Amino acid sequence: MKAVKCSLISAGAALLLLGLSAPLSFAGGAKESSSSGTTTITYMNITARSNVGSSAYATGLYGAIDDYMAKHPNIKIVSESLDQTSYQTKIQALAAANDLPDIFDLKGSWVSIFANNGWAVDLAPWVNADAKWKNGFTPGSFAPVIRGDKIYGVPSQGFITSIVFWNSALWQSIGYSDFPKTWPELLDAVQKFRANNVVPFVMGNLPNWPAESCWLSTLGDRLTGTAWTQSIIAKSGAKFTDPDFVAALKTFQDLATAGAFNKDINSLDVDPARQVYYDGKAAAFVDGSWSISAIASQAPADVKNATRVAILPSVPGGKGDPNTASGGPAWFNAMGASVKDPARQNAVVDVIRAITDGRQTAITASLGGVVAYTDITFDSSKLPPLMVAFNGLMKNVKPVPIYDAYMDAAVIQTMNVGLQSLLIGAVTPEALAEQIQAAEDKVSAN
Amino acid sequence: MKNRALRPNATTILLYLLPALLLYSYIVTFPILGALRLSFFRWMGGARMEFDGLGNYATLLKDGIFWQSFLNNVTITLVCLVGQIGIAVVFALMLGSRLIRSKGFFRTTAFFPATLSAVVVGFVWTFIFDYRFGMMNTVLRLFGLDWLTKAWLDDPSTIVLFVSVPIVWQYIGFYMVIILSAVSSIDPGVLESAEIDGATSVQKAFRVTLPMIMDTLAVAVMLCISGNMKIFDSIYVMTNGGPGNSSMVVAMYVYKTSFIDSDYGYGGTVSIGILLLSLALILLSRRLIGGRRERGR
What is the ipTM of this complex? Predict the structure, then answer.
């Protein structure tokens, strides 16, 4: 009797263990499945298919994917999209669990971690072998993903992350027919808007990257100059505690203290912030070039027609060139390290090529998207007027590094969180500079 | 040990327990041991993993964000002890009284929020607190109290209180049900004899009911502490720990250290830190409440 009981118990335990391990083995096995000669390629990204039509990049991207699948019936591309914040969580967890998809969006600031840990496949053999593809990108596009002679990603789209979108009708009402060219003028305008109960600049900094990516990357450059940023990136001497960077933080904080931003700056999200501008309750907002197609498709006609583009004004005493805006590719298509079979690697690179070369970019550019791949001809007749204005503006503007496309994730995290506090006066520029430098020191030590 | 003959031997007991023990070890014990092991290493997730002894723990002791997060956890726990258990006791006593009709309705309504996902609750309250369209400010404006309106989730000095509100709201019903069951298990005879002795409702509540449900209250307090030490989701949705780190809680700090900064070693250290601190708090609460009860007897 006892023997029966024991064997029943052990059978139960075995079943239990089987039950625990079964889902794991199933998940592992399903990924590599290639039933009836069809290869499934998984692709995780931050561009939802539901944005086809309203977002130029999404339209170009999914157009290219559908086109590719139609021409290659044996390849099935399964894409999964998340918003940026959730995506960041999920992809890092998948990476740590060694369960990355075949293709995924890699942010510039994650490259060191992914490269050091061997999570992403070096794409240099393929990129270097295809000169037409490689040289089609704007010069410097690959810079954030190059480590030594290795290339960890292919630029997905070009960005300018710091464009001032301003409502000319509202600025006219306080006597500005053009956007301020200098910082004192900007502060003066802020006072006048405050007196009229209009929010000068609306910012949705809940996800905490906008203040850094859209404002500080450019404002910092105005004060420190690009050489300082390059030195930080190369870890060759510059420090966040340098007086110029502290001055940039102080300029930013003073602007906030003057009342330039909305009261709910840290609890408002990016899209609702744009809505405040659409409602005519804010005179301007500073955001990336991705907002151009959003304004063209979402803003009410009067706001859309009154919207102009500009760059942040020059700051007195700043060491940087005032004709710059942070820009360049910040996101890259990378291959997960779990793809090991050479034939499969070739297939994956072929898909990456299809979603980054002229096929995708021509559609994106014709709809008003900013692209990193410029070896294209496209129909510019349907461009939104704002895009034409933007292209005109960019003729004289030089892109400078977007902080979160180059600097390490832990440093950016400290900076982003700290900027939330800085803008509501909860931390001094000096103290924040020290915190960021401490994070940098910790990363360098590892 | 009167029934020694009926008691199975130790091996059999162990075998009976084995399936549950295995499952528990797999999802609880091993991950904790894993975190403990990680906490002694400097590890950013890849092949390089350096043993660092107690280095991470030395950092933890001096880590301002960790201690601020822990203080936030403690504040939220205190608010919840008063808000959740306090209100739950009042509701339970009210539902226990003969004056209230349709008790079933009130019980279900009060319990309903506990069935919602914390993410949903977080979103709902984000809308309520919204500066522009939120219910809070709309109602204040409706009553002409415009000067009271504010960006509720933007002030670092009060943010911890406001992120506690949804947590309190969500779990009142949960504790109410626990306390109700304790109240209903009190022998009616005791209350009736108190009534015959001329006790008022308030006296009955404080002198009879509360002392008799002290055991249950102790369990509720422990649940409340352990629950709030691991609080994460609703705050993540509402403020993401912001503005700055002002509404950061330890679980979120672990998550951000591990998965945003990719500092898995230190992430492990922080989780072991909060494990020890919560254990200490729970032991302390047992001493405080348990001690008083024993003296009372």
Answer: 0.81
- Domain spans, chain A: 35-157+330-376, 163-326+386-445
Mutate to test the interface with A, among B59, B65, B154, B247 (most CBs of A within 10 A): B154
Instruction: Show residues of chain A in contact with B239, CB under 8 Å.
Output: 206, 266-267
Q: Choose from A266, A271, A276 for mutation: most chain B CBs within 10 A.
A: A266
Of the candidates A20, A116, A208, the beta carbon closest to that of B26 is on A20
Q: How confident is the model at residue A256 (pLDDT cuts 50, 70, 90)?
A: very high
Q: Enumerate chain A positions whose Cβ falls within 8 A of a Cβ in B.
A: 2, 5-6, 9, 12-13, 16-17, 20, 85, 88-89, 92-93, 95-96, 113, 116-119, 206-208, 262-268, 276, 409-410, 413, 417-418, 420-421, 424, 426-427, 446
In chain B, what are the domains? 76-247+290-296 (1.10.3720.10)
- In angstroms, rounded to a whole number, what is the distance separating the alpha carbons of residues B137 and B139? 5
In this prediction, residue A23 has a pLDDT band, given cuts at 50, 70 and 90, of: very low
Which distant-in-sequence residues (6+ apart) come within 8 Å of A168 by Cβ? Answer: A177, A306, A307, A308
3-state secondary structure of A179: coil
**For residues A201 and A260, is the Cβ–Cβ distance under 8 A?**
yes
Strand residue runs (E) in A255-378: 282-287, 307-310, 324-326, 331-335
Domains A35-157+330-376 and A163-326+386-445 share a fold: yes
Segment A263-288, tens digit of pLDDT: 999 999 999 999 999 999 999 999 99
Q: Are A427 and B244 in contact (CB under 8 A)?
A: yes
B190 touches chain A (CB under 8 A): no
CB B163 within 8 A of CB B126: no
Q: What kind of fold does domain A35-157+330-376 have according to CATH? A: D-Maltodextrin-Binding Protein; domain 2 (3.40.190)
For the domain A163-326+386-445, what is the CATH code? Answer: 3.40.190.10
Q: What is the pLDDT of residues B242-295, one digit of tens each?
A: 899 999 999 999 999 988 888 889 999 999 999 999 999 989 988 887 655 544
